[in-house]
Design a protein that fits this description.
Blueprint (H helix, E strand, L loop, with lengths): L1 H21 L26 H12 L2 E6 L2 E6 L2 H10 L11 H6 L15 H14 L4 H23 L8 H17 L8 H18 L1 H8 L9 H27 L8 H14 L6 H32 L1 H14 L15 H14 L8 E2 L4 E3 L2 E3 L4 E4 L1 H5 L29 H4 L14 H18 E4 L15 E2 L3 E2 L6 E4 L8
Parallel strand pairs: 2-6
Antiparallel strand pairs: 1-2, 3-6, 4-5, 7-10, 8-9
GO cellular component, one term: endoplasmic reticulum membrane
Cofactor: heme
Membrane topology: Peripheral membrane protein
């Protein structure tokens, strides 16, 4: 039997390749394919694909195509082309490619997930309910402040316990961020020593690894590889098992204890939506709720963890920026009270630092892949319905024509000469998509920026962050970051030294 299996598999692969090559699509040209089926896969820098795409755009234009393991992918670079896809033609480019590994992550059902097409009304309904529950203004921000500051206070205690000795910050920051997101999603208070946090951290790593390695790409093309020990399949299965072991009991608990008059978290809002839809004969399933919460958890934890961890690396490399931030914090907030979101409007340098940090790191360098929802055009190039589209946001945030010395951190890019914030129509604000734009913009961008403000001000109110004694800090150049679903700083050590007020303030 085994001797018959291999020829059959080879025959299937040959048939697949022939069909792919005979099916011609009208798409923009790109670099020639060096290998049949493999296409351009081995020419793309797996750790810095965004830089590979920028280099190719110089020869083939801002919109071109590549072929990776038989799949045509359109690559979009530069502000004009990215803006047209994100904003001008937001509806046409709001689809998602149907990838097998993503389907596995979603328990076999795209509906309701951020991986679903925008044209699906159920997905939009669930997204709207989640956004509404987050209440990103007024009392919603007050609640974010209360939740975040409580966890950050515990984080400060953990940093104090290091007694100014070097430590690796990523896992600690991840625990704090996870506590905040879980409280927001499930109304459940966790402390940083809870065993669930380490398990959830492992879950995220499994998902990220499966999305960032070659075995995941091959699983998309040949789903039957799951029967032959495919690494991505094993990782996705382990991640789903962890998710269900923690999320399902939390959802069950909310269902049993929900106060319908006072919904307290995103899970409550989704359960109420489920009940409302049932009354009008429509169905929101348990899976819809679970996957919507999964999307929010993954997006909220990963991005904030990488942003805050990357911030510490940046501060070690830019001590003069760290000092300016501390002086502004001392002048506006002082040392006798915790920071408040009400302080934001008086802290132009801190706000500019956060914006510049997001531009500089550009953690969502390529965002999540898109797919066209209809036949359309982009910068005059015809594109067929259903083709995968990758938007190179990195090319916008590191365009040398817009950002001089783009790999140097300069908070002043977002300040006028008098130190006030630049206006929304300033070129540096317009050429800036840290949370995407259009229909697919991050649903919690206000909360995310507010959460970052509280992390920055709370940590720098208490500490100065330095490299291990007698060493220089590792580079914070984001081109050296690891690539997963988002960019992640390489592991590094840092010391948290209790901040002393400068002599002129004593």
């Amino acid at each position: 039997m085994p001797e018959l299996l291999m020829p059959a598999l080879v025959a299937l692969i040959i048939i697949y390749i022939v069909i792919k090559f005979m099916t011609k699509k009208s798409i923009p040209k790109g670099p020639p394919q060096k290998w049949p089926f493999i296409g351009n896969a081995f020419e793309i820098d797996s750790q810095n694909p965004q830089e590979t795409f920028i280099n190719w755009s110089k020869k083939y234009g801002d919109v071109f195509s590549v072929k990776v393991f038989g799949e045509d992918i359109v690559i979009v670079n530069g502000f004009d082309a990215v803006y047209e896809a994100l904003v001008t033609k937001s509806t046409e480019f709001a689809g998602r490619p149907k990838q097998f590994r993503v389907k596995l992550m979603l328990d076999g059902e795209y509906t309701g997930s951020c991986w679903d097409n925008w044209s699906n009304p159920k997905m939009r309904l669930l997204k709207k309910a989640a956004m509404r529950s987050m209440k990103q203004f007024g009392e919603g921000l007050d609640r974010l402040e209360t939740i975040s500051l409580g966890v950050i206070e515990e984080l400060i205690g953990v940093l104090d316990s290091k007694e100014e000795q070097p430590f690796y910050p990523e896992h600690i920051i991840n625990k704090a961020t996870t506590c905040i997101i879980l409280l927001y999603l499930f109304g459940e208070e966790y402390h940083m020593d809870h065993p669930h946090l380490a398990v959830l951290h492992k879950m995220l790593r499994y998902w990220e690894d499966s999305m960032g390695n070659a075995s995941g790409l091959l699983l998309d093309i040949f789903p039957w590889l799951r029967f032959f020990g495919n690494k991505a399949y094993r990782e996705i299965s382990k991640a789903a098992e962890i998710r269900d072991s923690i999320f399902l009991p939390l959802i069950k608990k909310r269902k049993e204890t929900i106060d319908k008059a006072n919904p307290d978290c995103v899970c409550d809002a989704l359960l109420l939506l489920q009940e409302e839809q049932r009354k009008v004969g429509k169905v929101i399933t348990e899976l819809d709720i679970k996957i919507t919460l999964q999307d929010s958890f993954m997006g909220g934890v990963d991005t904030t963890t990488s942003a805050v961890t990357g911030m510490l690396l940046i501060l070690m490399n830019y001590p003069e920026v760290q000092t300016k931030l501390q002086r502004e914090i001392d002048g506006v907030i002082g040392t006798e009270r915790p920071p408040s979101l009400a302080d934001k409007s008086k802290m132009a340098y801190t706000e500019a630092f956060i914006l510049e940090m997001l531009r500089y790191m550009s953690l969502a360098a390529l965002g999540l892949p898109r797919a066209t929802e209809t036949d359309t055009t982009l910068r005059g190039h015809p594109l067929p319905k259903g083709i995968m589209v990758v938007l190179n946001l990195w090319s916008v945030h590191h365009d040398p024509g817009q950002w001089d010395d783009s790999f140097t951190l300069k908070p002043e890019r977002f300040l006028n000469e008098d130190g006030t914030p630049v206006s929304p129509d300033h070129p540096n604000k317009r050429n800036f998509f840290p949370f995407g734009a259009g229909h697919r913009i991050c649903i919690a961008q206000v909360l995310a920026k507010s959460r970052l403000f509280l992390f920055v001000t709370s940590l720098l109110q208490k500490f100065t962050f330095l490299p291990p004694e007698g060493t220089t800090p590792p580079s914070c150049d984001p081109r050296l970051f690891k690539r997963a679903l988002i960019l992640v700083p390489q592991p590094f050590q840092v010391r948290a030294i209790r901040w002393q007020q400068p002599d002129d303030k004593i």
